[in-house]
Amino acid sequence: MAKSQLTAKKRNNSLNPRQLRSSGKVPATLYGRGMESISIEVDTKEFTNTYKKDKYAIFELNIENKTFNSIVKKVQKKPTGDNVLNIEFLHIREDETVKITVPIKITGESPAVKAGAELSVNLTEMEVECLPADMPNAIELDISKLENYEDFITVEQINYPEGVKSLLNPDVAVVRASVPKAPEETEEAAPEEEGTVQAEETPAEE
Question: Which residues are bridge partners to 68 per DSSP?
Answer without folding.
Answer: 61
